[in-house]
Design a protein that fits this description.
The chain is mostly helical. It has two domains: 64 residues, Arc Repressor Mutant, subunit A; 45 residues. Helix content is 60%, strand content 6%. It is built from five helices and two strands. A two-stranded antiparallel sheet has the order 1-2. Strand 1 and strand 2 form a beta hairpin. The longest helix is centred in the C-terminal third of the chain and has 25 residues. The relative contact order is 0.10.
């Protein structure tokens, strides 16, 4: 898991970190049971305060994306596969809405968009 902090971003540092960890979980890059760096290690690696990384982990735990085990650390939650699937579906729908808006700007018909998506889907299926 690689986290990049941008000084040019309008988002606070903790939001940038949280969004990237969340994305890694929702995309399947991180799996249920995977351990996350300790709060102190993550702070050291990213050169941010421990308070920042603590806040990130607390927020992700509140979202039920990670579990904190006293004395052992933080882990990607395995108890909420349906929740994670629902979150991934929500993100997919957001991307699809963006695609629909863009296609309308290009004056594409619904059928043109479906045809284009079908072609791309079939190309992705081919090994």
């Amino acid at each position: 898991m690689k986290i990049i902090i941008s000084n040019a971003s309008s988002d606070p540092i903790y939001i940038q970190i949280m969004n990237q960890i969340r994305q890694s979980i929702l995309s399947g890059e991180l799996h249920a049971g995977d351990s996350l760096p300790s709060i102190r290690q993550l702070a050291k690696d990213l050169q941010v305060s421990v308070i920042t990384t603590k806040r990130v982990y607390e927020e992700l735990e509140n979202e039920k994306l990670i579990d904190s085990v006293v004395g052992k650390g933080c882990f990607v939650s395995g108890a909420n596969k349906l929740f994670i699937r629902e979150q991934r579906m929500k993100r997919l729908e957001e991307k699809m809405m963006e695609m629909i808006r863009e296609s309308k700007e290009l004056c594409m018909s619904q059928q043109d968009l479906i045809n284009h998506l079908t072609i791309l889907f079939e190309e992705e299926q081919t090994p």
